[in-house]
User: What shape does this take?
Amino acid sequence: EIVLTQSPGTLALSPGERATLSCRASQSVSSSYLAWYQQKPGQAPRLLIYGASTRATGIPDRFSGSGSGTDFTLTISKLEPEDFAVYSCQQYGTSPWTFGQGTKVEIK
Amino acid sequence: QVQLVQSGAEVKKPGASVKVSCKTSAYSFTSYGISWVRQAPGQGLEWMGWITPYNGNTDYAQKFQGRVTMTTDTSTNTGYMELRSLRFDDTAVYYCARRGTGVAAANDYWGQGTLVTVSS
Assistant: This one.
């Protein structure tokens, strides 16, 4: 199975700062079938990005995704207070689908 | 608006089975798959598998093969996930999520989650 490794584990930033999250795959992700989710405590995950770089419906343009092959990045251009959460990447090109372990973005 | 509403929390003993339901609305049920994902306390997300309501085809993670069954009822637009021979480490929140096709196959709508606690 494809193992996804996210870094860093925790990112401490201030509102207004730029956040850069990494997701590295153990083998190439088929056709860039890579998604990013945001999850807040006690809530279900929320789809942010699919196809490595396409924003899901209703997602603000401060969220952007990039990458291909084995290296993917989620960038939040200017952190808003509501963006402090856990972010997980997921590959859905090869069964079994797999998730990264998550990156927590916390307030500095 | 698209909704997936799951059944309520369950407490089960080791060795028992649990069946979680996921009632969907406001979209064409047979045009999308349903994935099941779980999250143990304080842990990351774990994909369990998915089902195509159109023809009932399933794809289960090897870890759950033989213990999990996913089904759908197209008359009520509801999906079900049954997990058998429960163990303490099956304690988790179980989510259903809609799955599209192709590059849009990522899970775009999620249920609220169902907490399953395995305790003696």
Notes: The first strand of chain B starts at residue 3 and ends at 6.
